[in-house]
Design goal:
By secondary structure, the protein is of the alpha/beta class. Helix 5 packs parallel to helix 6. The chain starts with a strand and ends in an 11-residue tail after the last strand.
């Protein structure tokens, strides 16, 4: 620490400058306090041109200054405003020029959903510490369940998706529906009660707890601690498919298996019926092949025994000698005919060689060669001309494709700021109330921005 000594007293006292003092305090605050969650009401909200947010968080007794820089507030999925109750996460800092401590905000949520997320995280950490999410306690699913128990709303889209997939993949599997409400205050208790009923009746090989997508509040019954412990204690394997793929509930984490959607859960639980049929057909073909091969082997053995029996007969030997005599006679005749054909072929070859040696033959071949080369040259010229025409047409089509006017004619628009004519490439550069001009295929339209949404806001 750099200090300025003071003289004139019996002892020298270290003296800090104000800037040094504020710097030391800032370092102590930033290094000594971890990131914190703070809930309060927004007031004194300022939005300077830099894109940063400056505001105060207050309750009925106190307030604290806050700063949220542009790179962080662009990730907020709603537009903060004065009087709004929010939940923020940030770190403690000090604004040295004024000596004021402030909260550097890194994320912001609306207070209601933020409270639910805190409850979710607390329960998740608690159950994880108890080992309810451990992979070693998860049970395998039956390869071919006879009956699948589905705990869900009987009128929801989830049960329709499950039944449709099972009917397509393996319609022989029976489905038992245990009807329950899947949202509301009583839903968690009803699901737990129906789970106990399914376990007591013991009529299904595996249980599926499912529902379609929804908000965090809609899916909250599946984050109930009592339900989670009931799922973990189930003697039957349990598959959880709650919401969409991005939705994760405590029921998903504690279940033996988690599927991203109800349809995916049905595919997980059912074997591929078409693959089974193909396997059965392969086994049948293999069995038929083995049987046919066995029959052929037995037939060949029988034929061999019959041949051996016939070969021992005296008449067989006489017939063999007569056949041998006929064969020798045939070979003698064929040898004579072959020699005659060879002599004729030699004479014909000598005649052709004599004809080929005449100048008239060579001249005729040269004429034919010239005509062939002329035809090939003309064909090559036509092909080259056609290729150049095709390349010119392709380049023309490419130029028309990349033309911005062609894009506009397909229904798109070029959006510019009305004041300076600059192009708009991102919704993040716009604010409510900005005037813009949309250039269409025919004419222009003057527009004013009511609200913006970035790519992260799209569902």
């Amino acid at each position: 620490m750099t200090t300025t000594p003071r003289t004139g007293d019996s002892t020298e006292r270290p003296v800090l400058t104000v800037s040094r003092l504020n710097r030391e305090v800032r370092e102590l605050l930033e290094s000594g306090l971890p990131a914190v969650w703070v809930e309060g009401e927004i007031s004194n909200l300022a939005r300077p041109a830099s894109g940063h947010l400056y505001f105060s968080l207050k309750d009925e007794h106190a307030q604290v200054r806050c700063a949220m820089f542009r790179t962080r507030n662009q990730l907020v999925r709603f537009r903060p405003d004065n009087g709004q109750q929010v939940l923020v996460r940030g770190r403690i800092g000090l604004y040295e020029p004024r000596g004021e401590y402030q909260l550097i905000v890194e994320s912001m949520e609306e207070a209601g959903s933020g409270a639910l997320r805190r409850q979710f995280e607390e329960l998740r950490r608690k159950l994880e510490a108890e080992g309810l999410f451990a992979p070693e306690r998860k049970r395998a699913l039956p390869a071919l369940p006879r009956r699948i128990g589905v705990i869900t709303s009987p009128s929801g889209a989830a049960i329709r998706d499950v039944l449709q997939v099972l009917a397509r993949r393996f319609p022989a599997i029976a489905v038992i529906i245990y009807p329950v409400p899947v949202q509301g205050r009583e839903a968690a208790a009803e699901i737990q009660r129906m789970l106990a009923t399914a376990i007591q009746r013991d009529e299904a090989d595996v249980l599926l707890i499912t529902r379609g997508g929804g908000s965090l509040e809609d899916l909250w019954p599946f984050n109930d601690e009592a339900l989670a412990r009931a799922i973990a204690a189930s003697p039957l394997p349990v598959v959880s498919a709650v919401g969409h793929e991005v939705d994760v509930t405590i029921a998903d984490l504690v279940a033996d298996h988690r599927a991203p959607t109800p349809s995916a859960a049905a595919e997980m639980l059912s074997p591929d019926g078409d693959r089974w049929l193909r396997q059965f057909r392969a086994w049948a073909e293999r069995l038929a092949f083995v049987q046919q091969r066995r029959l052929r082997t037995d037939r060949q053995r029988l034929d061999g025994l019959l041949r051996r029996l016939h070969s021992q007969h005296p008449g067989r030997r006489l017939r063999d000698h007569a056949q041998r005599l006929d064969e020798l006679d045939t070979r003698l005749r064929q040898a004579w005919q072959t020699q005659q054909r060879f002599r004729r072929a030699t004479l014909e070859q000598l005649r052709r060689r004599l004809q080929a040696a005449t100048p008239r033959r060579t001249l005729q071949q040269g004429r034919e060669r010239t005509r062939e080369l002329r035809r090939r040259l003309e064909a090559a010229q036509r092909r080259g001309l056609q290729q150049r025409r095709e390349r010119l047409a392709a380049v023309t089509r490419t130029l028309e494709t990349v033309s911005p006017l062609a894009t506009v004619r397909r229904g798109y628009a070029i959006v510019q700021r009305s004041d300076d004519g600059s192009l708009i490439r991102s919704a993040a550069t716009l604010q409510a109330g900005d005037a813009v001009t949309a250039r269409l295929a025919r004419g222009r339209a003057e527009l004013r921005v009511e609200s913006t949404r970035t790519e992260d806001d799209w569902p």
